Give the backbone structure.
Amino acid sequence: MSAERAAPLIWDTIERYFALLQAHVPAERMRDEILTDDFRTGFVNGLIWQGDEGLRDFLEARAEFFDESHVVEQLSRPERLPSGRWRAHTRLEFFLRQRLEGSPVSETFTGKAFHVWEFAPMPTLVDPPGEEPPGDEPSDSGWLVAAQLVEGFAALDENARRLFAQPSAGLNLDEP
């Protein structure tokens, strides 16, 4: 599969991932619908949530956001890895809103985030005609997210700077 053919499939996979994440679905549904068994997320050179327990901890850490959006502005040319998975980088704009218990107002967190992603296409059940090697061509449907790691940030507002101030600690929602 060419990078040109993989790119729209990767866009679709990212959109499906964010639709579930922003809907605050349970970890089991995320795992069943969009994630690989070895999914990991977090910060490059910082905290990484991995596996079932890591996924639950990650979702719990961000459960306070009741209104959010993630808009991918740019996707790099996807590259196929020796493992058969695909890697791509994105730049996205995010908006998060939380309201702390007892607070009369909500807080917003905005900025841009740069991610490196890894995707695992589902193999086809039938070999494509005339293509070699047999079984090596991934399917056009059913791609999964294997990793979503933050590489950096830009244009953060004050709340987002506080939230992401210590990537080694994860999300800093409890910091004043």
